[in-house]
Amino acid sequence: MPHAILATRNAKCLLAARFAGFMLLVAISCASAYYSFAAAEPPAPAEVIKGFNAVLLESMKRAGELGYTGRYKLMEPVIKEAFAIPFMASATVGSNWKTFNEKQKQTFLETYTEWTIASYAGQFNDYSGERFEIASESKPVNGIVTVVSKLIQSNNEHVDFYYQLRKVDGLWRIVDIKILGVSQLALTRVQFVSVIKTKGFEALIAMLKKKTEHFSQRAEK
Fold first, then answer.
1. Which of 3, 80, 156, 159 is most buried, judging by how many CB atoms fall within 10 Å of its CB?
2. Longest dimension (CA), the chain
3. Residue by residue, what is the 3-state secondary structure of 37-63?
4. Residue 137 pairs with which residues in a beta bridge?
5. What is the pLDDT of residue 219?
6. Along the 221 residues of the chain, how does pLDDT read in single tens digits?
7. Regarding beta strands 171-179 and 182-183, do their DSSP bridges make them parallel or antiparallel, or are they unpaired?
8. 182-183 and 131-137 as β-strands: parallel, antiparallel, unpaired?
9. How many C-alpha atoms does 100 have within 13 Å on its Cβ side?
10. Contact 59/66 with Cβ under 8 angstroms?
11. End-to-end distance of the chain based on CA atoms, in angstroms?
12. Torsion angle, alpha carbons of 200, 1, 75, 66, to 10
């Protein structure tokens, strides 16, 4: 999901791979305040994306001073609150989720979450005058609302992100992102299900841990 964005990077999607990081410790307080779901009226779908975009933009601008570790720590609470991580994790392994025992479910959820955060912290690490704009918010269709967010580069080229949100425990959370018409969740599921089928559960965990380590090592170079 958000991690998923990275799965289909192409010439155009490379514009999106300039993001990462977050704010300094004072910024996390602001982000936490925005994403505080204890409020009487939780944010509408477009507001969830707008707030997430604001955090990403600030993180890009401070990417260098934060470094990978700082970006990871600061991005972690926002990703966990803006995205329906447990739902997305189970969806990426399809029917295999029902065959996992409780220990496997917990291990996969933790590993998947770490990989997701590392994907943002490791690759979204630069700023070149980009900005975000919310283009539209759809009416609910089968419980899903689509928010179109534009990442506009300084030369006015842009990439459109189609965030799909659904209510989880009464709160709007991101469950998928489409880029150029391609579902990032679906792409991830194809890969994960294939690994489980051909190599097994432990191989999937090892693959995700290796990807997470790769993001960290590359970012620190």
1. 3
2. 50
3. CCCCCCCCHHHHHHHHHHHHHHHHHCH
4. 147
5. 59
6. 544 444 433 434 444 444 333 333 333 444 444 444 444 588 999 999 998 888 888 878 888 898 888 888 888 889 999 999 999 999 999 999 999 999 999 999 999 999 999 998 887 788 999 999 999 999 999 999 999 999 999 999 999 999 999 999 999 999 999 999 999 999 999 999 999 999 999 999 999 999 999 988 775 65
7. antiparallel
8. unpaired
9. 23
10. yes
11. 25
12. 90
| Residue type, position 207, single letter | M
Please list, in sequence order, all residues whose beta carbon lies within 8 angstroms of the beta carbon of residue 198, skipping any fewer than 6 positions away.
Answer: none
> What is the structure's pLDDT at 8?
39
**Within a 10 A sphere around the Cβ of 103, how many other Cβ atoms?**
8
